[in-house]
Design goal:
The chain is an alpha+beta fold. It is 32% helix and 35% strand. The chain is built from 5 helices and 7 strands. A 4-stranded antiparallel sheet has the order 1-2-3-4, with helices on both faces.
Length: 149
């Protein structure tokens, strides 16, 4: 598994990934991306990557782009985001652990992980979290896990 900056990935490679229905069903509904909009989205993520205490990376497994992850600003501090297509399923915990290492190295004390209400409560995450709450973001229900770094 490899984590690379967005600037090393072509928008044409991200386009089918971010429009994948198995991935989109657990994200806030939005229109499908086109090449121009995926480029803008990538630029936004690269701007977040440049912020202190943040890191956004594309995720490669066996050389194939399978998703992205990041430590991003959040209303409550820092959010962990992990968006992985089917080809990367089963690697979420390894990605999460890597990101917790990033958070630790950046000096964060706590991170939050928001999962859209379409997902079940994950007992493995709940056991590791300091607390779990139901939240509303952009008018949508989420389960929010809080983790001590």
């Amino acid at each position: 598994m490899k984590f690379i900056p967005f600037g090393e990935v072509r928008a044409e490679d991200f386009l089918p990934l971010v429009n994948d229905e198995t991935l989109r069903k657990h994200l806030i509904d939005h229109p499908p991306f086109e090449l121009a909009t995926v480029r803008r989205w990538m630029e936004e993520k690269m701007a977040i990557d440049a912020l202190p205490g943040c890191r956004v990376r594309a995720v490669l497994i066996d050389g194939a782009l399978v998703g992205w992850c990041g430590l991003q600003p959040d209303e409550e501090g820092v959010e962990i985001a992990i968006v992985i297509a089917r080809a990367g399923w089963g690697r979420g915990l390894a990605i999460f652990n890597e990101m917790m290492g990033w958070a630790r190295s950046m000096g964060h004390q706590e991170v939050v992980f928001h999962l859209l209400g379409t997902r079940p409560l994950y007992k493995s995450l709940a056991r590791r979290a300091t607390r779990v709450t139901k939240t509303t973001l952009s008018g949508h229900p989420f389960t929010t896990y809080y983790f001590s770094v």
